[in-house]
Amino acid sequence: MKALYLKLMWLLLSKRVPYVPENQPDYMVKYYKEYAGWLDAGAPDGCGYGYSRADGLCANIYRSSSLSAHEMYLVQQGLRAQLDAADLSQVYPFGARNYIHRWDRRTQHLAPKRIAWVRAYAQVPSDKE
User: Is the pLDDT of residue 72 over 70?
Assistant: First the structure.
């Protein structure tokens, strides 16, 4: 756990995750934690998670097994706002070439910048805490 924390801090300090808010809505925390759990489980296809290795964070919102349809919409809007605040593209926040390369190989879940983003945001507390 300490090694993960140190790596996360290094990523944040080296600006690989350019923007992390002080807090965020519950539904955002829920999505990031569920996605991080899927990564920790080895990113299995199926197995109750529903996420796809070929898709990025935006498309996988609609594959979440724990979000309601309304929450999916809110997470989509929240993710877009977070990407804007980080001055990242809403279409290819971690690079178009990287996305296309990983989509073809079904390895989006292995993209270091995507993993760092998810891990960083999964640690941000809810705005209700």
Answer: yes
